[in-house]
Design goal:
The protein is 43% helix and 21% strand. It has 183 residues and is an alpha+beta fold. Strand 4 and strand 5 form a beta hairpin. Helix 1 runs antiparallel to helix 2, helix 1 packs across helix 4 and helix 4 packs antiparallel against helix 5. The longest helix is centred in the first third of the chain and has 22 residues.
């Protein structure tokens, strides 16, 4: 899903679709402020979803020769390390520090959750599965209304946003616990 698709949906929800569509088509500058606020809201919602509800994970193979894997060497902004292993899958111990992670030297596979980067109107969401454009549009509508002091409307859209999050959780495959044998 693209940022523009979500912005157009959210603009329709909050009643500024005429101004936003005219601005996106280049007909007028009238809807520029609304569009910028919707994009800002999109970035807030995507970040909130990644941090609180649907983490985004990445897996990278890196060469570590000094025993220190600096977070800046990762391709994305890591927020939580899930695992560190060798290429053959053997887990290896690691220790987290503020600027780096200490691991045994060699080639390592790092799995981590990351924060999405800030996007512009032509960007694309990091969510390719699990989060729908409708869910994002409800969140963007809620944030947009809150930014503009429309607290009653913001509350309505926030309830719909939270309900969509709950639906997305219900639609996720559930994990099962292996059956135990009792003696």
């Amino acid at each position: 899903m693209t940022v523009k698709e979500v912005i157009v949906l959210a603009a329709d929800l909050v009643g500024v679709s005429n101004e936003v569509n005219a601005f996106l088509l280049g007909k007028t500058d009238e809807g520029e402020a609304q569009t910028e606020n919707l994009v800002r809201a999109f970035n807030l919602v995507e970040h909130e979803l990644a941090m609180d509800y649907f983490p985004l994970f990445c897996r990278e193979v890196l060469d570590v020769w000094s025993g220190k894997l600096h977070y800046r060497d990762l391709s994305r902004a890591a927020v939580r390390i899930s695992s560190v292993a060798r290429e053959n899958g053997d887990k290896i111990p690691y220790k987290i520090f503020s600027e780096y992670m200490q691991v045994d030297p060699g080639k390592v596979v790092v799995e981590y959750a990351y924060a999405p980067v800030v996007k512009d109107i032509n960007g694309e969401s990091d969510y390719l599965i699990g989060v729908t454009d409708r869910l994002m549009a409800f969140g963007v509508a809620a944030e947009y209304c809150f930014m503009n002091g429309l607290y009653g409307e913001a509350e309505v859209w926030d309830k719909k946003y939270k309900a969509e999050i709950a639906n997305a959780y219900r639609n996720r495959p559930s994990k099962s616990i292996k059956e135990r044998r009792w003696i």
